């Protein structure tokens, strides 16, 4: 039986919000056979991370999933860092460093909020939103 839900992750649409951006980032990585210009790599990473951040914020508003309130801004901030690295405005961070930041930060941002505050946002009157 198919469950109708407003949660992107549970509905199966999560594949388009995470897999496609991940493929974009992998195809533009520094260790790939084809080297892209830094501004192009930064732009691709920024688009992919913005896509993920927007999807998280949209999901947070639609169904109130707790980790989305944290992962949305996390991905949008990472997108700004990626653009800064690509445009060479940020010299102290590389794409490898940003990748490590995302590798460690993403599971933390997605798991910890739900461990502490539950899976869904609860309204002040005690009902789930």
Describe the structure.
The protein is mainly alpha-helical and 129 residues long. The protein has one domain. Helices cover 68% and strands 0% of the residues.
User: Structural class, judged by helices and strands?
Assistant: mainly alpha
Question: Poorly predicted ranges (pLDDT <50, ≥5 residues)?
Answer: none
Q: Helical content, roughly?
A: 55-70%
Count of individual domains: 1
Shape: elongated
Query: For the report, how would you describe the main beta sheet?
Result: none
Order of helices and strands: HHHHH
Number of helices: 5
Strand count: 0
% residues in beta strands? under 5%
Give Rg in angstroms. 16 Å
**Mean pLDDT, as a whole number?**
78
- End-to-end CA span: 24 Å
What's the gist of this structure?
This protein has 129 residues and is mainly alpha-helical. It contains five helices and no strands.
Comma- or semicolon-separated keywords:
129 residues, mainly alpha, 5 helices
Chain-wise SSE layout:
Blueprint: H1 8-11, H2 14-27, H3 38-63, H4 66-86, H5 95-117
Helix pairs in contact: 2-3, 3-4, 4-5
